[in-house]
Write a structure and sequence with these properties.
The protein is an alpha+beta fold and 431 residues long. The chain is built from 15 helices and 13 strands. An eight-stranded mixed beta sheet has the order 5-4-6-7-11-12-3-13, with helices on both faces. The chain has a three-stranded antiparallel beta sheet with strand order 8-9-10, with no helix packed on it. A two-stranded antiparallel ribbon has the order 1-2.
Length: 431
């Protein structure tokens, strides 16, 4: 029987929930806003299937990467509306055109994220673009298994832990008609924090209502009611490249279109490092505990392809970088290579050393922010997400002086010696 004693040992994939023959396992939100399995022990028959399909308890050997590729979708419109160089949509088309099914993440009516499947091209588009949240798998594993047994092509795209969960749910059976695609993952932030951020920023945040909900759900809960149909939000893009380009992507929220309006009105548009939610996420303040000791990355989940952004392009392949997005594709299996070779992509061969540059997604683990506990304590006390993030990320006076001095010295060196001189000095200092 699944029993979580240390939250770092549960990635929230929900494989146990979907495999239970008695349906006696449910996911419940904890005080930080993450979902964990809870077992109805009276109904449980102690068959052990939940433990057998847990990807944390049943880890596979790593798969070596076969090829490392920098890629660009030649359709610039598709690439501008995608992450990872626009690889996802052409892959999905291949599968759909073969009569297959594509699984991916979409927003629900409350702007939270769940996994669904699509059998038509037009249903693929909501899956495009990065969504820096852990999606609810719900019945996606069972649905995928059903399609696989029917002999249909299935492309399943998810985080490393979700692909690991799918593999163990399928009891590691090899399906020739399954294409598993994961992405380089920074970690997943709290859905509860996201829900509260939306309520505070774009809803009608009511401190008294928050207190009532906390009393109902538990004294220290971050729970806040989801946005409903009255929400002004019409679209959310975590990585909008249309205004500032790929490297300085923006977090953009657009309003619902008014009748006969030509386009949505922008509610907010922030460079990613200026947006409160993104600042907290990228600073590792409220990631899932298992993300800090991830056991599902770097080949152990046996994905056929791994996709991400080729951030090294701005250093090693500047001539390949048009600031519209350069994707990274790790070809892990012969099946992955077969599917990728069907695509019409602009490709440049690379290697792991290059790809690893400027890409934290390769790190074995993400380190918890030292003020993570303080952040949750602050929002339990009634601070807004923005205020709590600002407090946790406030830089001391000495650090600000140090950073400013470093920038001044760098500027002088660059003026005197140029960019090459700066690189030489960094190399000499081991930086």
């Amino acid at each position: 029987m699944i029993h979580i004693t240390d939250k770092k040992n549960c990635c929230g994939c929900s494989a146990c929930v979907q495999r239970c023959p008695k349906h006696c396992i449910r996911l419940e939100e904890d005080t930080e806003g993450f979902l964990y399995p809870q077992v109805d022990e009276e109904t449980c028959i102690k068959c052990g299937l939940c433990e057998k399909v847990c990807p944390i308890l049943n880890q596979a050997d790593k798969l070596p990467v076969q090829e490392v590729l920098a890629v660009k979708n030649p359709d610039e419109k598709e690439r501008m509306n995608s992450s990872s160089g626009g690889v996802f949509l052409p892959l999905a088309r291949v599968v759909i055109n073969k009569g297959g099914v594509v699984f991916g993440a979409v927003y629900d009516e409350s702007w939270e994220v769940l996994h669904v499947y699509a059998e038509k091209i037009e249903d693929i588009y909501p899956m495009m673009g990065s969504k820096y949240l852990q999606s609810r798998i719900e019945t996606a594993y069972r649905d995928a298994e059903r399609f696989l047994k029917q002999g249909r092509e299935v492309m399943f795209v998810g985080s490393p832990c979700q692909i690991a969960g799918l593999r163990t749910f399928l009891r590691n059976k090899e399906y020739p008609n399954l294409l598993a695609v994961d992405f380089l993952c920074h970690g997943v932030p709290s859905p509860g924090v996201w829900r509260r951020y939306l309520a505070e920023t774009y809803g009608r945040y009511d401190a008294k209502e928050q207190s009532r909900l906390q009393a109902t759900a538990g004294k220290n809960s971050v729970l806040f009611s989801s946005l409903n149909a009255t929400s002004p939000i019409g679209d959310i893009k975590f990585r909008d490249k249309t205004e500032s380009g790929w490297k300085k992507y923006r977090f953009v929220v657009r309003q619902k279109s008014a009748p006969k309006a030509d386009q949505n009105t922008v509610l907010s548009s922030d460079i990613h490092y200026d947006n409160p939610f993104m600042r907290g996420f990228l600073s590792d303040i409220y990631l899932r505990p298992s993300c800090y000791e991830c056991k599902c990355k770097n080949g152990v989940n046996h994905s056929d392809l791994t996709i991400g952004d080729y951030w090294a392009a701005r250093v090693t392949d500047q001539d390949f970088d048009d600031d519209k997005g350069v994707g990274l594709v790790l070809v892990n299996t012969s099946k992955g290579k077969e599917y990728f070779d069907w695509l019409n992509m602009t490709v440049r061969k690379s290697d792991l050393d290059k790809a690893n540059l400027c890409n934290g997604g390769f790190n074995e683990h993400t380190h918890a922010h030292p003020k993570r506990a303080l952040f949750f304590a602050l929002i339990y006390q009634g601070k807004t997400i923005k205020d709590a993030v600002d407090i946790c990320l406030k830089i001391s006076l000495s650090s600000r002086v140090k950073n400013k001095t470093k920038r001044l010295v760098k500027g002088v060196v660059k003026q005197v010696l140029g960019d090459k001189g700066v690189k030489v000095i960094k190399t000499a200092l081991g930086k």
